[in-house]
Amino acid sequence: MPEDGSPGSVRAMLRAATDAQHQRLHVLPAFAALAEGRIALHDYAALLQRKLGFHAALDARLEGVDDLAALGIDLAERRRTPLLRDDLRWLGMSDAVPLAPLPVLRGAAEAMGALYVAEGSTLGGRQLARALDGLLPPGEDGRRFLLGHGARHGAMWRDFCGALERCGADLAARDAMIAGAIATFAAFEAWFSVPEAIAAA
Question: N or C: at which end does the chain have fewer Cβ atoms within 10 angstroms?
Fold first, then answer.
């Protein structure tokens, strides 16, 4: 099996299959403003609320899937909704939010594809956290979600990529992973593409 990220690896196939969707997310106004360090505090809080609606819904979907533990996935240690709730509480904002409508995950392979969307979002999180330096005081407060798994990030990402390769060793499972990732990216994009919904979140 090819190494993590190399041509022919499951990770590379997932990245290629979802690249167009991923690139579209970068130009959504709230994400672009965050990346460029020009987001206003109330818009940042609204974005975190919207993210909570997505991640809480994804957590619920993943909890209903068997066999992830057999791939080496510990959902409890990868759950990032507590970090979002911490950030929102620190900002003085409610964490009572509507949940995103997400596709049903039919088995561990589709669930791994969906989890790829969530875990992949941790890769640029530290850079985005630094982009908040002009908005938030120094430290972790208000940006714990963006800091993700913290000091354990590298090890957890490598472990996840290993699980991707194990799951994708079966060709049918690989196709299901890609389908799960595409469907989850589509749900994520739809959830963040309705300005009035984001403002009300």
Answer: N
Are 180 and 114 in contact by the 8 Å Cβ rule? The answer is yes
Question: For residue 48, is it within any domain?
Answer: yes
Give residue-wise pLDDT tens across range 130-166: 999 999 999 999 999 999 888 888 899 999 999 999 9
Q: What is the DSSP letter of 152?
A: G
Give residue-wise pLDDT tens across range 41-57. 999 999 999 999 999 99
Q: What CATH number is given to the structural domain containing 78?
A: 1.20.910.10
Residue 1 covered by a domain: no
Question: Within 10 A of 184 (CB to CB), how many other CB atoms are there?
Answer: 27
Contact 147, 140 (CB under 8 A): yes
- Please give the full DSSP string across 12-62, using - where no structure is assigned: HHHHHHHHHHHHHHHTSHHHHHHHTT---HHHHHHHHHHHHHHHHHHHHHH
**From the centroid of its chain, how far is CA 151?**
18
Which token pair is 156?
Answer: 């957890």
How far apart (Å, rounded) are the C-alpha atoms in residues 113 and 68? 12
- The dihedral of CA 139, 143, 144, 147: what is its sign? negative
Ramachandran quadrant class, 137 (left: phi over 0; alpha: psi -120 to 50; beta: rest): beta
Write down the pTM of the prediction: 0.90
Residue 3 placed within a domain: no
